[in-house]
Please model this.
Amino acid sequence: MKRTVGLLSTLVLLMTLSSCGSDRKSGENPFFSEWDTPYGVPPFDRIRPEHYLPAFERAMSLHEAEIDAITSNNDEPTFENVILAYDNSGQMLAQVSLVFGMLCDADTNEQMQALQEQVMPLLAAHADKIRLNEKLFEKVKRVYDNRAAEELDAEQTRLLQKTYDSFVRAGALLDGEQKARLKAINEELSLAAVKFGNNILAENNAYVLFLGADELDGLPSGVRDQAREKAQELGKKDSFAFTLHKPSLIPFLTYSSKRELREKLYKAYLNRGNNDNEYDNKQLINDFIRLRTEKAHLLGYPSYAAYVVADEMARTPEAVYGLLDEIWTPALERAKGELAEMEPLFRKDVPDGEFESWDWWYYAEKLRKQNYALDEEMLRPYFALENVQGGIFFLANRLYGITFRPVSVPLYHPEATAYEVLDADESHLGVLYFDFFPRAGKGQGAWCGNYVEQTYKDGERVAPVVSIVANFTRPTTGTPALLTLDEAETLFHEFGHALHFLFHDVKYRGLTEVEGDFVELPSQVMENWAFEPEMLKHYAVHYRTGEVIPQHLVDKLRRSALFNQGFATTELIAASLSDMDIHSITEYEPFDPMAFERNALSERRGLIPQIEPRYRYPYFAHIFNGGYSAGYYFYTWAEVLDKDAFEAFRESGDLFNRKVAGDFRRKLLARGGSEDGMSLYRAFRGKEPDKRAMLRSRGLWNGPDEDAAEEAQSGVETQPGAPDGPENAPADAKELTPIQAVREQ
Model:
């Protein structure tokens, strides 16, 4: 890229002014120099909250100068001096945003939350200033219109197309008045997302159920120990504390025989963000839908769902609804059958009452014991966190030949740990952090993201720094962290995301991201190994005796694989439908989110009152501050792919087949967004995905396996000819966020 001496001087001047300005107050700012840390990890030991604002200010100034260099270049616009220059711009801003965004989720405090509210609108305005820059878009369009003469290779053509599309989808074709309104909308949305997430965190942390020793009937000793130590942490020596975090909530709902206490705790969980207090999210939900719908209209789409899905593999809301509706009816019927099985057990305890949603976990566990002689508490000793972590390392080594070595590097929290990841030839592949346990400054759930993205610099691969964050069951005095089956599966899931990041080998920064409904394929495919007998014998070892999980327990696990699948599938699809419905609104009017949800799920689709959607709107972080708006269906769409992909290993006769794994890595995981997701999948599988494996895994397939594969297509292939909106451009990313981390369901 050519630059004049004057433009270089401008860059130097901006750097000098910025370094002499706001950073004086913050001391030596780690973001202002190249990191000399091991493996290029962030210098967490030196980063302070007061460093972020000066870093963002300088990064945005540098980015603007880089854009000015492109727009001021009088040479004929080419791929190199426009598209490649744009792709290389903003690297400091991207790096600061990654660190800030990850820590806002994993280790926040009041100072960081205040910074978020200040910074996010600034970032939204900065992004719009660039994406709506008329001179810049004019040059991008010139290159795009002359692309036939550029003699570009496939990746360059893909980058050019994605760059052009992203500008169009960001509003580059709008007039001045429309652009001004779009800017205001994006700023409002960025702030609303911060407030929504902070409200959920406050609600999660505010509620604690303190109980006495006489109120613990049915609870296993491990659950009691957890509660006792939590109460002691909170200064209540003679009490037992239960919180809304899943490692506390789910065991209580599963084992407590005190029905009124199950109700109390579960209702507190369900009503987060819906308590008509300072943390209530219902008005924010209205703001989201009002602003997102207006944004979609400005950009030529009937609804925000249409805007989002146009850029995904599904392409249209109709295709999404087609898959969800096909699963909904049989899943709901299966759930009703499960309820009928539990009813006699319930009647023994409550002859005259109504089975409620807070009863489901308790009686499902009773039914599992009755039908399969299986109790999750008897399994936990075989799923110590250290052993499960060893299991995912073993699996990655068997499949890909990679290894993991503990390393001493700066940590952002004392509970975090780090590993260097070595490729099969022992070359450096990246660094992987783990952060396993709940705490007040951490959001709920589990996710995986980057602190440093894989890029290329001067022709050399820059290795990523990846982090898995979770909220697993804590260890207690004398007992290690013993995971539930769900927690063990979640670790396999997030590890799949980590491998996707670690294996990235993408030349251009603009080709790193994949479609949202593709992104869960690398994670969910790993879940398939978690409880395979061949896999269990390598990691499911009793934490005290060292005994490998006995065959009779493995057999029980296999026989109960479809147990409660009606419930699990129904709550998942209910959340996906409620997400699509609220984002399919075409004309906004003020509404009650709870009434809307009730109408969408119970009145229109017959959701039974004994099952709540996996997420209710006031705490549905995925869709309001997590990058999955109109995209919670991603998990289900990708499940068609992951189950079909795992069939490739089954068909080979070896679940650890190195050749199949090598193809999966080389043709799919390493490629990022270098091609569209379906092309990558076809390159790996050699055919279209077949949804029968997914339906079988959920107990929903009733047809003969001999049916032709084409009759079982899910519709997960792209929809040729589907209208995309203005100039047939695919939808760009959702509201600007500082990080695109991927989360558990």
In short: Residues 178 and 519 are 32 Å apart (CA to CA).
